[in-house]
Design brief:
- The two termini are about 15 Å apart.
- The protein has one domain.
- It is elongated and about 50 Å long.
- By secondary structure, it is of the alpha+beta class.
- A five-stranded antiparallel β-sheet has the order 1-2-3-4-5.
- This is Plastid lipid-associated protein/fibrillin conserved domain-containing protein.
- It comes from Gossypium schwendimanii.
């Protein structure tokens, strides 16, 4: 089978302020202030994730080794296995009927 990637999403990381070491809190505060001064369209793009069309540029071949209701095990052309588990159905507007798996 062939897997083809058609879109990539760059998302900003989620930072829990309580986990930031004291010596980095000043730099974090400055970065946050700078980010808040960005124009609204750029802030929105960063907050919602930047979507990048890949138009099939990235693809890989794989073979299904095992499949049941919860687990999918695939192997790439080198024979390296990857175990994927089923995700709960999301309420996103995607019209896909294929179940989603997460590695």
């Amino acid at each position: 089978m062939k897997e083809e990637y058609v879109e990539g999403i760059f998302e900003s990381p989620t930072i829990v302020e309580e986990t930031i070491p004291e010596q980095l809190k000043g730099a974090y505060s400055q970065a946050l202030t700078t980010a808040q001064q960005l124009p609204v369209p750029i802030r929105d793009a960063v907050a919602n994730g930047l979507r990048v069309p890949l138009s099939g540029t990235f693809q890989r071949l794989f073979m299904i080794s095992y499949l049941d209701e919860e687990i999918l095990i695939i192997r790439d052309t080198a024979g390296i296995p990857e175990v994927l588990t089923r995700l709960e159905a999301s309420s996103s507007g995607m019209a896909e009927t294929n179940p989603e798996y997460e590695s």
